[in-house]
């Protein structure tokens, strides 16, 4: 039986092209869906949710047929056990936060075990908001309540359509670890649409990239993001890396994490040893040396090879450094590049402070 598999063949005519998709996704972790505006990301989510009645094809999720247009099968949205989180929170304005949550709980998906109410409130961080009326919540608070409400519905698949797009960057930064933690804790698979490389780098395990109604790339987030062609023209260059918590050092307020065979230090976090984590490292945080650092305050210094490089404008060079299994994107000035006489294939040491790493 194909449990944890979402398989779909979809054909949906749109104004300028057809949404034409044929995919088999292992429902494990968070799938990010990226692509330029109008390429069909929302249409894909709407087809999966059962909101597009004109779609032809088949959708099978966890061995259950949601759509088979040849056989005349079309399960309505409420029978698919899906949670849908939109850009705007869409809470009931006449109910307070608790009222919104109770309403969701009463209508929970009977095919899934209910998630413990208190655990959801705690993970989403809204315990202090329960008696508030909806109009007294900030945008970020509303979105947290919307997330909790959707979880209390006991979905077997969460679809998120740019859920952070209407929030400022600091609200996004506080909600992203919460979304990642929810996925890890409750093990609900997520399909997450986003325009933002910064969001996808923190959240997605796997990625689909769409163009004009079709999937043009599919792979792990770290494979697809940590490439020069992906980074060179974007606003912020960064790497998305996968690591595991090793141990904590409360005396120094540090946590050691393992990234491939390397041991790195970051600010202390409260995740137990063995927890998988996503590490985001801005390319400008990295310095390169030709020898291992000695007598330096910089805690992280790992050997790497320059896999490829590309000029970025007139004054910077972007390098892709191979660490073993994973690759790191690093940005240095052209002056440093010339001074070190770097070229592809060189062995270097990538150095960065513990505070330079963001761990989600
Ligand atoms: N109901 C509809 N009927 C026909 N065409 C539609 C309909 N809704 C959207 N479209 C068109 O389908 C294409 C895909 O739209 P969709 O909203 O899925 O894209 P998107 O990738 O989510 O875009 P964005 O990132 O801007 O939200 C667009 O060209 C859009 O104009």
CATH architecture type of the largest domain:
3-Layer(aba) Sandwich
The largest β sheet comes out as: 6 strands, mixed
Query: Approximately how much beta-strand content do the residues carry?
Result: 35-45%
Strand order of the largest sheet: 7-8-9-3-10-11
Q: Could you say which small molecules are bound to this protein? A: adenosine-5'-triphosphate
The total beta strand count reads 21
Number of domains: 2
Which blocks of ≥5 consecutive residues have pLDDT under 50? Answer: none
Name of the top-level CATH class of the largest domain? Alpha Beta
Protein name: Molybdate transport system ATP-binding protein
Organism: Endozoicomonas lisbonensis
Pfam families: ABC_tran (PF00005), TOBE (PF03459)
Domain ABC transporter: 1-237
Describe the protein.
With 360 residues, this protein is α+β, with helices and mostly antiparallel strands. The chain folds into two domains: 5-225, Rossmann fold (3-Layer(aba) Sandwich), CATH 3.40.50.300; 238-359, RNA polymerase II/Efflux pump adaptor protein, barrel-sandwich hybrid domain (OB fold (Dihydrolipoamide Acetyltransferase, E2P), Beta Barrel), CATH 2.40.50.100. Helices cover 23% and strands 36% of the residues. The protein has nine helices and 21 strands. It has helices at residues 41-49, 97-106, 117-124, 139-152, 169-186, 197-203, 221-225, 228-231, 334-340; strands spanning 5-13, 18-26, 30-34, 56-61, 64-68, 73-74, 82-85, 157-161, 190-193, 206-211, 214-220, 238-249, 254-259, 262-267, 276-282, 287-289, 300-312, 316-322, 327-333, 347-352, 358-359. Strands 7-8-9-3-10-11 form a six-stranded mixed sheet, with helices on both faces. Strands 2-1-4-5-6 form a five-stranded antiparallel sheet, covered by helices on one side. The longest helix is centred in the middle third of the chain and has 18 residues, at 169-186. It is globular and about 65 Å long. Residues 295-360 form the Mop domain. InterPro entries: AAA+_ATPase, ABC_transporter-like_ATP-bd, ABC_transporter-like_CS, Mo/tungstate-bd_C_term_dom, ModC_ABC_ATP-bd, Molybdenum_import_ModC, Mop_domain, P-loop_NTPase. Residues 1-237 form the ABC transporter domain. GO terms for molecular function: ATP binding. This is Molybdate transport system ATP-binding protein.
